[in-house]
Specification:
The protein has 13 helices and 28 strands. By secondary structure, it is α+β, with helices and mostly antiparallel strands.
Length: 617
């Protein structure tokens, strides 16, 4: 079976893990109990790696939606004989409401078929394949369901119809008439304990309804965005909530691994981890789109994970596991074919060991936003923040891998220098709250030195723009961070020229690339190509809005947001030739970019108040 398009999937989430369901009613990806756990279903990456499908027999048309205010997917199937609905949800604890959403989830997948008109026949096929498809567990049919034995975990299933055992799988057939409901449930447990009893078929509808109310209560407490783009912002905020590992506050970049940046390509990475570079933009997005509580949780996670690694003899790590793990060593899974034969499939991410100097600015900017909006910094965070600033002061002149995690030779990336300026600028602003650790005069002097150096060596007369690295002529979309972080106003003559150069020369069919890939001499040290970057296109929209061109910004925003799938989800990249979504999905950074661009446009049009703590103001 050919893999579904990336855009065919919807995400289910419970505050700990995620699952992807496609338009045919197939769960093709599910990692439990954490986002970065080995997949139980991985047909997304190989036809033989496990799935759970509830699909109409014969030809059908499918439409779907998120139930309003939730990440519960409702798919409506229309066949020649009738219409039926399938509701899919990852359950939350019964009665959980508001900010507590996602705490201590039961690791239970709930699925309900409801007849709407006529009657519809369904095939049900459940093929568990733990550990990314390596394990073919033993199955035992039980009264009303099935249990697995063997391998690194166990699952128990309840079914409203008898199941038939196949080769390491179970199947069933059913026909649903108007007014009938059939509820299925699957619960996970580690191997050392027996799985709890799954929800009975009679209670599945009730438990899905309760999960719906839990999501709606969370959104009701977090509905603070009142600009014209409110609906898009609220959806993206729910996506960010769904990508949050609630026990620690970590936010993963995406719930998937190895969805490629080009079909058949090798740029296939594991994004199920939390990056520091996302921190300040995530906080800005969460503040616009939800509430400061999520921001507090995320900052707490980042500072506790990074604490102790910002000293004079060590680099601040750029990313962590959702539990704060540091070692994310990368390996390949050669038994998996990859999405549309895009090999290799990777787990882990070797970028954890790279030196990326931009992270000091991103984390200090996050702390700056945190203290302005959420109160005073704790003493240990005061010491930690001062250490970050001192390290940025000492190391900003070093070459590094850059924020795009290039695997070629280290360079003097412009974005890294700008973010070191951000580190010292925010440290100066934080100084009154850093006690005896503060060194505002030294920080301010080096901040100004960085600024002058960037203006001199980051500008290319030949290109007429700020470029990717010192003394280079290559454009890089990361230069758009200069106005977004307040390094230069978007109306500055050279900054304005850079914005226009990127819009003119770093786009493909109007969508923004990270940088140009040049045949056999890719400066990033990687083979193959990639699509246009959703985040970078939203950066350009935000920069155009700040530069006083909100109409152009709105047009670009609408075009990029229009590539979202029917559920409103965005991947990392867009193929400009086909419009197909590419890369890991859904991508937190893309939804962060949407929220922040929407806010910039709505502010430029006077439809949304500016926040005093915004770094660009």
């Amino acid at each position: 079976m050919m893999s579904s398009r990336i855009a065919d999937y919807g995400m289910l989430a419970d505050g700990s893990s995620a699952a992807l369901v496609d338009r045919r009613g197939a769960i093709d990806w599910m990692c439990v109990p954490r986002f970065d756990s080995p997949a139980l279903f991985a047909r997304l990456l190989d036809p033989e790696a496990g799935h759970w499908s509830i699909t109409p027999v014969g030809r059908f048309e499918a439409t779907r939606r998120y139930l309003p205010g939730t990440l519960v997917v409702e798919t409506t199937f229309t066949t020649a004989s009738g219409v039926a609905r399938l509701r899919d949800a990852l359950a939350v604890p019964e009665g959980q409401r508001g900010h507590e959403l996602g705490m201590s989830p039961p690791h239970e997948l709930l699925r309900e078929i409801e007849g709407v008109s006529g009657d519809v026949a369904f095939d049900v096929e459940l093929v568990p394949r733990p550990e990314y498809g390596l394990v073919r567990p033993l199955l035992r049919l039980t009264d009303g369901g099935m249990r697995t034995f063997g391998g690194p975990n166990q699952i128990a299933v309840r079914s409203p119809v008898p199941l038939e055992a196949g080769e390491a799988c179970v199947r069933a057939k059913l026909r649903v008439a108007a007014g009938q409901r059939f509820g299925f449930s699957l619960v996970w447990a580690p191997p050392e304990v027996a799985p709890p009893e799954p929800t009975t078929p009679e209670r599945v509808a009730e438990r899905i309804d309760d999960t719906v109310e839990a999501w709606r209560s969370w959104e009701a407490e977090h509905d603070i965005y009142q600009g014209p783009h409110r609906d898009l912002v609220l959806l993206s905020s729910r996506v960010l909530k769904g990508l949050t590992y609630r026990p620690t506050g970590a936010i993963v970049a995406a719930p998937t691994t190895s969805l490629p940046e080009a079909v058949g390509g090798t740029r296939n990475w594991d994004y199920r981890y939390a990056w520091i570079r996302d921190a300040s933009l995530t906080l800005e997005a969460l503040y616009h789109g939800s509430c400061p509580n999520e921001a507090a949780d995320f900052v707490s996670f980042m500072t506790s994970s990074a604490g102790g690694t910002s000293g004079a003899d060590s680099s601040l790590q750029i990313m962590y596991g959702v539990g704060g793990e540091h070692d994310l060593s990368e390996r390949q899974l050669p038994h998996l074919r990859g999405w549309r034969d895009s090999r290799p499939v990777r787990v882990g991410n070797q970028a954890w060991a790279q030196t990326q100097l931009d992270v000091y600015g991103e984390l200090l900017n996050a702390l700056h936003l945190y203290q302005e909006r959420l109160g005073d910094l704790h003493p240990e965070i005061q010491r930690f923040a001062a250490g970050l600033a001192d390290t940025a002061l000492r190391r900003w002149q070093e070459p590094d891998a850059g924020m795009w995690e290039m695997r070629g030779e280290p360079r003097h990336h412009l974005s890294s220098k700008v973010l070191c300026w951000v580190a010292l600028d925010r440290a100066v602003k934080l100084a009154p709250r850093l006690g005896g650790h503060a060194r505002p005069q030294a920080w301010a002097a080096e901040r100004d030195r960085i600024h002058a150096t960037v203006l001199e060596r980051g500008w290319s007369e030949r290109r007429g723009a700020y470029t990717q690295a010192f003394d280079s002529d290559e454009l890089d979309a990361a230069a758009l961070l200069m106005p977004l972080y307040g390094f230069l106003p978007a109306t500055d003559a050279r900054m304005n020229a850079t914005i226009e150069a990127i819009a003119r020369d770093l786009t493909d069919d109007g969508l923004v690339l990270r940088y140009r890939l040049i045949d056999d001499r890719n400066l990033d040290g990687l083979e193959g190509g990639e699509g246009t970057f959703v985040l970078c296109s939203f950066w350009l929209a935000a920069a155009l809005a700040q530069a006083g061109r909100p109409d152009r910004a709105q047009a670009l925003f609408d075009r990029v947001a229009g590539f979202a799938n029917d559920l409103g989800l965005l991947a990392e990249e867009i193929d400009p030739r086909t419009g197909e979504l590419l890369g890991n999905f859904p991508q937190a950074f893309s939804h962060i970019g949407l929220i922040n661009a929407a806010a910039a446009i709505d502010q430029a049009n006077g439809a949304l108040p500016r926040h005093d703590a915004d770094p660009a103001h």
